UniProtKB/TrEMBL annotation:
<dbReference type="GO" id="GO:0016567">
    <property type="term" value="P:protein ubiquitination"/>
</dbReference>
<dbReference type="InterPro" id="IPR016024">
    <property type="entry name" value="ARM-type_fold"/>
</dbReference>
<dbReference type="InterPro" id="IPR013083">
    <property type="entry name" value="Znf_RING/FYVE/PHD"/>
</dbReference>
<dbReference type="Pfam" id="PF04564">
    <property type="entry name" value="U-box"/>
</dbReference>
<feature type="domain" description="U-box">
    <location>
        <begin position="29"/>
        <end position="104"/>
    </location>
</feature>
<comment type="function">
    <text>Functions as an E3 ubiquitin ligase.</text>
</comment>
<keyword id="KW-0833">Ubl conjugation pathway</keyword>
<dbReference type="GO" id="GO:0061630">
    <property type="term" value="F:ubiquitin protein ligase activity"/>
</dbReference>
<dbReference type="InterPro" id="IPR045185">
    <property type="entry name" value="PUB22/23/24-like"/>
</dbReference>
<dbReference type="InterPro" id="IPR058678">
    <property type="entry name" value="ARM_PUB"/>
</dbReference>
<dbReference type="InterPro" id="IPR045210">
    <property type="entry name" value="RING-Ubox_PUB"/>
</dbReference>
<protein>
    <recommendedName>
        <fullName>U-box domain-containing protein</fullName>
        <ecNumber>2.3.2.27</ecNumber>
    </recommendedName>
</protein>
<comment type="pathway">
    <text>Protein modification; protein ubiquitination.</text>
</comment>
<dbReference type="InterPro" id="IPR011989">
    <property type="entry name" value="ARM-like"/>
</dbReference>
<keyword id="KW-0808">Transferase</keyword>
<dbReference type="Pfam" id="PF25598">
    <property type="entry name" value="ARM_PUB"/>
</dbReference>
<dbReference type="InterPro" id="IPR003613">
    <property type="entry name" value="Ubox_domain"/>
</dbReference>
Amino acid sequence: MISAYRNRRAARNANKIKKQLADVEVDVAVPELFRCPISLELMKDPVTLATGITYDRESVEKWIYEDGNNTCPVTGVVLTSLEPVPNHAIRRMIQDWCVENKSYGFDRIPTPRAHASSSQVSQVLSKIVAMRGKGNAQGVMDLVVKIKDLAKESERSKKCIVSNGVGRVLTETFDACSYDQNQQNFAVLEEILSCLTLILPFDQETKSGLGSTRSLRTIVTILKLGTLSGRRNAVLVLKEILSSDQAKLEEFAEVEGSIEALAKLVKEPIDPTTTNASLLAIYHLVTPSTCYNQKEILITRFLATGLTEKLLEMLVDCTRGVCEKALGVLDGLCSIDEGLEKAHTNALTVPVLVKKLLRVSDTATEFSVSSLWKLSKYGKSVGDEEGVAMEALQVGGFQKLLLLLQVGSSVKTKEKACDLLKEWNLHRGRVECIESMDFKNLKRSF
């Protein structure tokens, strides 16, 4: 009896499963009209080219702007216009179809936001020039905010804004507003810098415009007195200017308080992005291909701010990006005797530099070897030949340099490593301590 009941229950369950399988969603085919000819997927933002063929915007813009094609993907005909036109009719049809087939897992595609057009951008930029001529700071501010909003909409909108000369207009406006840094103009100046950070990296025209003496002085003023966001944007812009023009480095260094303002951003950090930009700007200043005397003056000014001590504290625990830049700046500061003296007398210097060998990146390792080499030479010159060697040996420096020669590095770095090994080898019998964790999971390049 029990067996018969079990059989009937099993039969009922089997019938229920068959019914469920029969009710399973069928495979609904997407109509060909709704498929993008490039991706073959359901179009989310259908646009039509000059040839009359409709594509999904993301796919066709990649074809045109990223891949550099000027032909229709389907017909191969050269396009008379590279500007795709939204196909509202097809989009509405797709949306209706998605609603009808919602039960099969098709969500209604959202209505896309309108992208910036060349005529729209040109109109806003023309208004900025007009407001600037009238001295209407608030009008300029409102229009710059509008440009920012357009730039944030999409990558396509940002490219449209850049191609229409926003860099030139903003830099000219920044320079013009720098004439009179009253309270109202100061807010406009910070807003312009904020907008400029959205179009990084700059073209040469924008860099040149921001590199004027008046503009550089204004940037320094914002670095010293601006809001937190203002100082952040100022150093991001400054990093771009100093990275490409030696003359701008010299002009910036001549502005009163410029060096101290940059060092303060490192000593009193705002956020990682600001710290990275500040370190990179300082690196360009302390390692320029200028005369030794000028470089010595700049480094001396940075040393007076206590930058060496702050860098060593940061290097104890920091991200890879900060570590590379901090080591580069430290190596630059060690280019003169005063910098070497400060590093030599700091108890953190040698242990931190040895710790960074082979741990962070090739760049960090090269900077560390360079600094250790300079410190070793300096120690000899002041009669402390054993100091650097003994400290380095205690934290496994000798073994790390040996391994460095095997895993590969630049010729200059290898030469400096060999010099250090020769000097440190004389003291190996007196003290040697290896930290095996430094070599754990180390991957060789061969």
